[in-house]
């Protein structure tokens, strides 16, 4: 298995020999919470802070997709 490859068991990804364990469901929850926070910040007129929260959520979403893509390429 390549060093960057991940395997997913249920909602967990294990990268290359168990060095990194990732809970996909937890990452999805964090992303959802950040998106909800961004919406609240927008309503409060804090648009720059909302943009930062959305960017962080987007980064998490990209991480999730990278783990899933690695699993599909193993």
The major β-sheet equals: 3 strands, antiparallel
Residue-averaged pLDDT: 82
* Low-confidence blocks of residues: 1-9
Number of strands: 3
Question: Helices and strands: which structural class?
Answer: alpha+beta
How much of the polypeptide forms β-strand, as a percent range?
Answer: 15-25%
Helix tally equals: 2
Strand and helix order: EEEHH
Quote the distance from N terminus to C terminus: 7 Å
What's the gyration radius in Å? 15 Å
What sort of overall outline do the alpha carbons produce when their principal axes are compared? elongated
Helix content: 55-70%
Give the spatial strand order of the biggest sheet: 1-2-3
Structural account:
- The chain is 62% helix and 16% strand.
- The protein is built from two helices and three strands; from the N terminus they run βββαα.
- A hairpin with a 4-residue loop joins strand 2 and strand 3 (20-23).
- Strands 1-2-3 form a three-stranded antiparallel sheet.
- It has 74 residues and is α+β, with helices and mostly antiparallel strands.
Q: What would you say about this model in short?
A:
Helix content is 62%, strand content 16%. It is built from two helices and three strands, in the order βββαα. The model is unreliable at 1-9 (pLDDT under 50).
Characteristic key phrases:
74 residues, alpha+beta, 3-stranded antiparallel beta sheet, 2 helices, elongated
